[in-house]
Amino acid sequence: MKKLFPTLLLAAGVVVAPGVQAKDHGKNELAACRADMEKYCQKVEPGEGRQMKCMYDLRDKLQPACASLVSEKYTRYLEQRQKKEGR
Length: 87
Hints:
By secondary structure, the chain is mainly alpha-helical. It has one domain.
């Protein structure tokens, strides 16, 4: 799981949107997300935003710091994806 979490962070822009690095966020936020990821989305196959979507879908169960970060980054991820697809 420890190897999958950075994948989530990078793929999701925590989820790291292009130009935004995980280090831009506090260690407490990342620690909160690591614990929540392991608790709620550990079995989700990484890739294509699946882990990020899992976290976003369960944001009401996440620790507040993580929920805030996931909401922010997932929204940014979707906006960038739409721009890339020309919508």
